[in-house]
Write a structure and sequence with these properties.
The protein is an alpha/beta fold. The protein is about 40% helix and about 20% strand. The chain is built from six helices and eight strands; from the N terminus they run βαββαβαββαβααβ.
């Protein structure tokens, strides 16, 4: 095992995911590839009366529904400076632990881009968090984790979110 892919979504489980990936990489002599996907926001098509994906086009990036290239109806979701700072800090901490680390920031649909990065890097393992949303949430919105698990040809290690 030489390459561990770690999708970053800035949720409560992210620090746990990074910590476990760091421990695995250290013990296996592997490198870590942090992946933060810059999402596209989808807008309803003109004349659709605002009814896009299940009447809520803003859910398209989370649903796993492909959002084709940039068009007049799509925009990048703005980046948060705190998130940029966290990415840099995590990258620095991993490197200080003596682990080779790289940060990748593709743009597009989250699950699709995670899988694309895993293929491009020939990742041996994907380590990611799960949020434990209910069945109704997953039915309406979809789940990035579910999309990755369903379509990945690589092993996926899921880290559950901390209980409230």
């Amino acid at each position: 095992m030489k390459r561990i892919l770690v999708p970053i979504d800035f949720s409560d489980v992210t620090p746990l995911v990074i910590d476990l990936a760091r421990q695995l990489a250290k013990s296996l002599g592997a490198e870590i590839h942090l992946v933060h996907v810059r999402e596209l926001s989808a807008a309803a098509a003109p004349g659709a009366l605002g009814y896009g994906l299940a009447g809520m086009p803003e859910l398209a990036p989370m649903s796993g529904v492909p959002v084709p290239g940039f068009g007049p109806m799509q925009q990048l979701i703005p980046e948060d400076e705190g998130q940029r700072s966290n990415l840099a800090q995590w990258e620095k901490e991993i490197a200080q632990a003596g682990i080779k680390v790289a940060l990748h920031e593709p743009t597009g649909t989250v699950a699709e881009e995670i899988l694309n990065q895993a293929d491009a890097l020939n990742a041996d393992l994907i380590v990611m968090g799960t949020h434990g949303h209910g069945a109704m949430y997953n039915l309406l919105v979809g789940s990035v984790t579910k999309g990755v698990i369903k379509h990945s040809a690589r092993p996926v290690l899921l880290i559950p979110a901390p209980r409230a």
